[in-house]
Amino acid sequence: MNPLFKAEVYQNRRTQLKKAVKSGIAVFLGNSEAPMNYPSNTYKYRQDSNFLYFFGLSIADIAAVIDFDENRDIIFGNDFEIDDIIWMGNQPTLASLAEKVGVKEVMPMAKLSEYIHAAQTAGRKVHFTPPYRGDNKIWLSNLTGINVNDIRNHASAELIKGIVNLRSAKEDCEIEQMENACEIGYKMHTAVMRRCVAGVPELELAGLAEGITLSYGNGVSFPIILSQHGETLHNHGHEAILQEGNMLLMDAGAENLMNYCSDNTRTLPVGGRFTQKQQEVYEIVLKANVDAINAAHPGVYNKELHTLSCKVIAQGLSQLGLMKGDVDEAVRQGAHALFMPHGLGHQLGLDVHDMEDLGENFVGYDDTVSRSDIFGWSALRMARELKPGFIVTIEPGIYFIPQLIDNWKNEHKFEQFINYDKVEQYRDFGGIRIEDDLLITADGHKVLGPAIPKTPKELEEIIGK
Ligand code: GLY
Fold first, then answer.
1. Residue 189: Cβ within 10 Å count
2. What pLDDT, in 10s, does the model give residues 222-251?
């Protein structure tokens, strides 16, 4: 049985949701097991995060309904039978598990379609979140009669907004779990630092980090990014051997036993010392990271922090001769995106990109801020105002992506802001990203978890030791 918060935590969340959604019913489908290569050989089980948030139970093949009109919470599922018990041991009844999350009503799974049909027949709205797994799309389509190809378009904006509003501000009990996930993240990153020396296979380091997540929690919060080709933003290939003079980028996080996630990136000089050229670029990224963290507090828009770090990057690259012209204007028009094509970060919680199953724009944008369509700016996932309890990643980077440089150069793009001759001297440089997980507090911010070394001096002191 997975660890749970007190029943009141889940009850209170459902009560809050009932205030946000005025009428109808909400259907929450739990996740099923996902087969790897034949039906009974499955990936590590992961429950749906909205289900975890409101109903806590990390069990396959259960569902739940919140009935807003009748103020009822019901969990649907079938108790284990003798065949299951032979293979999996004795199991608590669903009713006893439901009690742990404050739910008094339990019904067999067969009753779920009856409940939904009765609501539809009575003209009541059936709310659901956009299903993202194939089997749940089919299940929900069968339950509601909505064409499976169209089912995501029928997700309830009212329900989504209610959930985003609740889940964005983490409760104290969740922040404790996030600290725990970040402690595991600290162990992963510092273990890799100690082995970041020439001759070590990348694969060994990826395995080392992943093993740590499994020793203390539920495994990685997303597939590990670990590569000496940090210019590829999500590089999951770990085929190379570490070489002196290279930098190793590791973007990796842990999911703890209560499914809360960490997400940190460090870029390490193999052997412990940056070259001068590497350190000059590293210091710019570090300043972009630190300045954005220092500027974070309730009331600031995350887009402002993104802007700030992009300006630090453009300013720093101008000082190195790679950019030129007015920094503010270069950033406004998107010239910095040759070097930092992604956004400053995203929300973090039960998902590493928290709540993005609900739709990125619902999570990161609202009536007061809308998504830009300018390259680079458009990749900003989280733009809206920060409030106490929000947790966001702060992850600026500088990358030299040869194909992107060639494309822009051939298009004569932003020649008023980019010194392409100088950029050519960096085309084999790679990429640097530095990422921390930041809680917005009532009066400022707090970096979660133990401080993972990040200054060149701190890195020199731990790498290979
Ligand atoms: N850290 C991986 C990501 O944000 O996608």
1. 25
2. 999 999 999 999 888 899 999 999 999 999
User: Rounded distance, CA 410 to CA 189, Å?
Assistant: 39
- Is 131 within 8 Å of 147 (Cβ atoms)? no
Domain-embedded: residue 2: no
Decide: pTM greater than 0.90. Answer: yes
DSSP structural state of residue 347:
B
Report the domain count for the chain. Answer: 2
Residue 398 lies in a domain: yes
Say how many Å lie between the first and final Cα of the chain, rounded. Answer: 39
Which residues lie below 8 Å from residue 150, measured CB to CB, with a gap of 6+? none
The domain that contains 414 carries what CATH number? 3.90.230.10
The pLDDT value given to residue 90: 86
Residues enclosing ligand 1, CB less than 6 A?
222, 251, 263, 346
SS3 content of the chain, % helix, strand, coil (to 5): 40, 15, 40
* Rounded Cα–Cα distance for residues 115 and 117 (Å): 6
Whole-number Å distance, alpha carbon 266 to ligand 1 midpoint, is: 12
Q: Is the pLDDT of residue 184 over 90?
A: yes
CB of 151 closer than 8 Å to CB of 140: yes
pLDDT tier at 395, thresholds 50, 70, 90: very high
Shared domain check, 371 and 321: yes
Q: Which of 225, 249, 261, 382 to mutate to test the pocket of ligand 1 (most atoms within 8 A of CB)?
A: 225
**Closest C-alpha among 361, 278, 353 to residue 320:** 278
For 58, the 3-state DSSP assignment is coil
Ligand 1, atom nearest to 251 Cα: 1
Phi and psi of 276, rounded to 5°? -60, -40
Q: Are residues 196 and 77 in the same domain?
A: no
Give me ligand 1 centre to Cα 139, in Å.
30
Contacts of 197 (CB under 8 A, 6+ apart): 242, 270, 271, 272, 463, 464
Residue 455 falls inside a structural domain:
yes
Q: Are residues 364 and 425 in the same domain?
A: yes
Question: Are residue 238 and residue 133 in the same domain, yes or no?
Answer: no
Range of the domain at 136: 7-168
Is there a contact between 322 and 427 (Cβ–Cβ < 8 Å)? no
